[in-house]
Structure formats: structure tokens, C-alpha cells
Amino acid sequence: MRNTLAPLATTLTVQSLVSMAVVTVPVLAPAAAPETGVPASYAGIFIALVYGAGMTASLVSGPLVQRFGAIRVSQACLVACALGLACIASGSLPLFIVSALLLGAGYGPVTPASSHILAKSTPPERMALIFSLKQTGVPIGGALAGALIPTLVLWSGWRMSALLVAVACMITVIFTQPFRKALDSDRDPAKPLVVASLAGPLRYTLGNRDLRRLALCSFFFAALQLSLVSFLVTHLTLNTGLTLVHAGLMLMAAQVGGAVARVIWGALSDRWGRPTSVLGFMAIAMGAAAVAAGCFTAQWPLALIALVSVAFGGTAIGWNGVYLAQVARLAPPGKAGDATGGALAFTYAGVLFGPPIFTLLVGWGTGYGVAYMLVAIPSVVCGLWLLGHARSAAEHKEKELGPMEND
Hints:
Keywords: Membrane, Transmembrane, Transmembrane helix. The chain is mostly helical.
């Protein structure tokens, strides 16, 4: 199935709704806090539980996709997210924990499932662009939650707002059903779901040197990305004197920069044909942008802060599409879901541990500015590592092709 429009539209829609479901909870938190007695600041713990569950779920996604099909797994993810939001609407603290686990179970397998679909429906020369377009579903979902949920809360209350997003997830389940026959045609109902097969994703990732390199780098990229999203507003308000509104606009600029840059980086990677080099340059650029952000002071003009924020978002948020496309390329035939699940375990680990490490750095007295500079170092090292590998691979290829060209 070479037509990529239907698979792209389907996976983008699912990705957007699942991302919106996850972001809905921290957006609702301030409105729910007075009634539930749970401080809004606890949303950080909730998100950590979500990504912890998502990391585990991504590992089991490969065998599930092979047995039930990527669309069916995507539908199950949407149902899990809907149930998780219903638990939030209950207002019960124990069910909040269940909600985080359900949302994580819904979030984790979505990317491996969509990678499985897109890997078989996308021409190789367009893979990075298509994967990057699909990954814009993450910031789109976050933007939808930020734009719609506050209005829904004013209109119907926080409980009904959670339920309305749950209904949207269930409507998307119905929307995806007509595509199931075509997109799940390669499923194997006899695929065993045993412990050995569930370890497959990590086995593929750790057993392939190139996949292992990308996965390890993604840990540090994701850690820096979440440090940007989690602490930029606080850094700006404390250290530059910006109001909360202006600091929020800088974060929005970073998010928009990331969404647009994902498409640009994907197109560049396809055109140049060197995705590892593109990731290497992005890693160095995101490190440089983090250092620049760490230097923010009250003397910086607002326009320059905005420019650095866009550059920070364009690199630290914009890398995912090129990364996932390259993981799918390196995967054995029909194993894109397994390889993506294994690689994402490292990525989610970066999401899970990055913000707490940043918090520890700040708590040890470094300050937000120095903390940004410190978390930039691993990304720059990874960038140099990727560029060095890409150069060595290119030189090796030239040596192999040399005699053929002389002939």
C-alpha cells in the first residue's frame, strides 16, 4: 500500500488525540484541586507515572502489533485513554493512580504502532518527512488541550471536560475502523504472546549497534526536551523578570518552533539522505540553544529571548520525526514496531528521569541557568558521536564503491 495519505491521516489523528488526553490532566489540575484536595503541583508526579507506564507499554507493543494489527492496538490505546480520563472525572485519588497507568498504557504503544503502519506504506525517500508530519501530532495534541480545555472547564466544569475528551477518543476509535482491514492485513493471529516475545523489542534495539546508538542518544535528547518544556517558564520568570504571560508566550514559541521544525528537519533529512548526520547537527544545535537559554538575564531583549526559544524548540522538540524514521529504516523487515518499541524505552526513560535530574541540579544550588548548560553537555557529546559515526560510515561506503567506480 504505497499511498501514504490515509495511513498518515489515521496515525496523525490517533497521535493527536492520545497526546491531548495525556496533557488534559495537568491542564485540568488547577480547576480540580479545590474539589479533590490534590495540589495542582502533583501533576508532575502524575505525568511521571504516565511516562513510566508508557515506557513499559512500548516494550510490549511489538508482539501486540504483530498479532492484533497496528490499527487494533491504536484503537485499544484510545480506549485506555478514554478510561483513564473517566477515572479522572471520578475525583477519586486511588483512581487518579489508575488513570495515570491507563493513560501510559495508551500512550506508549501508539508510536510503535504508527511506525509499523508508516514503515510499510511510505516510500524510503519520503520516510523522514512523513514520520515528522505524524509526530506533529504530539504538539498538536498539547496545543488542543491548552486551547480547548480551559474553555470547556468554564462551560461545563472539569469533570465533564475530562469526559468530553474521553468521548473524542472513542469517536476516533470509530473513525479508524474502516481502515483496519487494509492497514492490519499483515497481522499474524497465531503470533504467541510469551515472555520471550515481549523481550523482542529490547533485543532488536540492543542487538543492533546503530539502533543502540540512536536509542542511547534519544535518552539525552528527551531529557533535554522535557527540561525545556518543564522549566523554561520558571527560568524566565525568576531570572529575566518576564511576567508569567510573557514567559508562557516564550514556551508557546518554542512549541510552535518544534512543530514546524519537525517537518523541515524531516524534509531536509530525506533530501540530503543522511539522517544520522542531521540528528548529529540537531543535537549540537539543541545543546547550543540550551546554553544560550541558560544565559538569559533581565538585560536580554524580548525579541532575542523569543528567537532563542524558537531555536531551542526547533531542535530539542524537532528531532523526533527524523529519529523514528531512522529507527524504522534500521529495523528488520516487518519489525518496525518492535524496533521502535525498544528504542522508545530509552526515549521514555529520558522523559522520566530528565526533569528530576534537572530539579536535583537546581536543588544543589546551580540555578536554572547553569542547570540548562549542564544538561546540554550530553546532547553535544551525542551529536559529535553521531557525526563521527556518519563520517566513518560514509568513508567505508566510499572505499567499497571505489573499485566499482574505477571499473
